[in-house]
Amino acid sequence: MISGRNKKHSAAGVRREGASASGISLRQRYNGWLAHHRQSASDSLERIFNAPVSSVLTWLVIGIALALPAALEVGLSNARQISDGWNSPAQLSLFMKDSVTAVQTETLREELLARPDIAEVIHISRDEALREFTALSGFADVLDSLEQNPLPNLLLVTPVSGANQSMTLHAELAADPRVAEAVMDMAWLQRLNNLMELGQRLVLALGGILVAGVVLILGNTIRLAIESRREEIVIVKLVGGSNAFVRRPFLYTGLWYGVGGGFFAALLVATALWFLGAPVADLAQSYQSTFRLGGLGIMGSLNLVILGGLLGLTGAWLAVSRHLGSIAPR
Amino acid sequence: MITFDRVSKRYAEGHEALREVSVELGRDELVFLTGHSGAGKSTLLRLIMLIERPTRGQIIIDGENLAKVKARGIPRHRRNIGVVFQNHQLLFDRTVFDNVALPLVIAGYEHREIGRRVRAALDKVGLLARERALPITLSGGEQQRVGIARAVVAKPRILLADEPTGNLDPALSAEIMQLFEAFNQVGVTVVIASHDLALISRLRHRILTLREGRLVSSGG
Q: What Å distances lie between residue B110 and A186, A229, B31, B106, B120, CA to CA?
């Protein structure tokens, strides 16, 4: 007798127990439940491996769909890493007023050097500047013909790296009466930041679309799996299988497809980075930079696999809740 | 054990499968359900299994009114009923053992207990030696016996059979009926739908006769 399951009846003592009666204890049921999870997990994995071509295709489709936004994100985080080095302006250019002499400029230089938020100040006197300009511009004749040096004294100020108060510093220095103009080239940095923001949005939008795509692909794959096992589902329901019991193998199938897809995505991103690594290093070398492409890393790859698994479960859940109810004994 | 109280079933397309059927089946009873095809035999079994719900009337099984069993409770209800189908309804990609084990796996039995019970059930139907076979390699009679083993493995209180001998020759049919009688003798309520009058009239059990959805005879 299996009446131990039916609390209402056994509690009331209504039901007669047969000679070989044995109720199922909670512990036994838990073990049985665990065993069915194990069984479902291994069965669905076996089914996936039994159809290697179509399974690998499904994995690749999911892998590619996940790899695209993941690769974009990796690219973006690399770009961010580069641009972080530029985030505080490397230099402020202080153009002295015409009336300020080289000696006075030198005094200002020393004052500035004493400040804690300034790392370095280079003084380029107007004569030096003219010499340099003459040499570099090729306008030597024109410049020679000038009666008077048109260039001001210049201080190149390098803030302490990481200082975020460059705007304040800029305002303070511009207010100095000896300074005609303080120029901080921030516009391009602003543009870069805007571009990065745009890139981030693109990654999000593309990621959202492709994630939805992955869920739909998996949902459809699971729907086909459900269709192909329709008879089995009917039989299981006839002998008393609950919806959770029927659902379980399909949820595991979705999970495995998702996890495999995530794994392929991580593999694709790693391959692409390996492929780009050498030329990027060469390029960085030519800029005297030691920059190396950063990858997903172990955690990033793991996250991708977990994300794939979650999407697989979601897709399977959608398919199962949509299609399993309609399969009933007739 | 099973009480039908003025039960009618009209299908959505208007066909009246059962009309005002009232009958009471006791514990330990083995009952044959007979009548022409379309007389309502299968519908009656389907109502007991909650594959269908009655249009009117009440069905009470072991003191429980089936109208109170909600959709969520249907699997639990079915686990208390063993069913044998005419077309066996076996899983053809699983071994005999796995087929018979299915109700126990669903009920959440432990691995060792499943092995013990499945072998006991297969032993009863004489198929212990074939536990590793795939159903497709078995004869029709053997497949039916696998179906019976699966129906009784969880020791249900009620055993339903829908034309269990439909495709079998007389000798095999008699064997199958003997199996049902054996289960009945250990206290299982058995309901067998069959139109094999020659066979069932020899077996001295109560016979319910349905004609066009009405119960025309409930003696035996």
A: 71, 25, 34, 11, 15
